Amino acid sequence: MYKSCIFDLDGTIIDTIQSMTHSITLTVGRFGYAPLDEGHTKLFVGDGYRKLVERALLYSGDKDLVHYEEALQIYEKTFRENCLYKVKAYEGMPEFLNFLKDKGIKIGVLTNKGHERAVECVEAVYGKNYFDQIIGEGNGIRVKPDPAGAFLMADRFKLSPSQCLYFGDTNTDMKTGTNAGMDTVGVTWGFRDRQELEAFHPKYIISHPDEIRHVFE
């Protein structure tokens, strides 16, 4: 029986694609590049904001990344001002999280989003202190798919990795769970397609949170 559920943030518990698309578009626009659409942003996110900026610049035509360092600073400031832009919970997720809490299951968020922005975003959608733990990029925690953050959260919960179920929407998340020795759940409502998730053989693939409730009944 699982005693904890650890969730990725972007594309898993909160739909943040508009905030990131808006912020990265404003960033590359400072250098005269065209706006990015949500489809490309979904492909560029998942590995931290530095990779997002790098991928967006390369796609936009900055093949030598001459604007990279400046763009990082611009994006950090821009995203700080826009991280709550049109963010919302995914359908069925608030009800599922309440179900888990009623069952006494510990719930946590492990994300490559910067820690301060992660806390701000989660609290805006779900309220303060709703999750038992939130761990974002920073404070010496290596980004996913390194399992360090997953191990740290399991340790804070005083649980073994095998007692934790890890949820995410990208290959990075599937690797994270596997690297940490946790069973993984691939969610198809996020930023990547089912085919990408299947390639990493998660224990479960779901298209709505209700599809995993039976595991806790």
UniProtKB/TrEMBL annotation:
<dbReference type="InterPro" id="IPR041492">
    <property type="entry name" value="HAD_2"/>
</dbReference>
<dbReference type="InterPro" id="IPR050155">
    <property type="entry name" value="HAD-like_hydrolase_sf"/>
</dbReference>
<dbReference type="GO" id="GO:0016787">
    <property type="term" value="F:hydrolase activity"/>
</dbReference>
<dbReference type="Pfam" id="PF13419">
    <property type="entry name" value="HAD_2"/>
</dbReference>
<protein>
    <submittedName>
        <fullName>HAD family hydrolase</fullName>
        <ecNumber>3.-.-.-</ecNumber>
    </submittedName>
</protein>
<dbReference type="InterPro" id="IPR036412">
    <property type="entry name" value="HAD-like_sf"/>
</dbReference>
<dbReference type="InterPro" id="IPR023198">
    <property type="entry name" value="PGP-like_dom2"/>
</dbReference>
<dbReference type="InterPro" id="IPR023214">
    <property type="entry name" value="HAD_sf"/>
</dbReference>
<keyword id="KW-0378">Hydrolase</keyword>
<dbReference type="InterPro" id="IPR006439">
    <property type="entry name" value="HAD-SF_hydro_IA"/>
</dbReference>
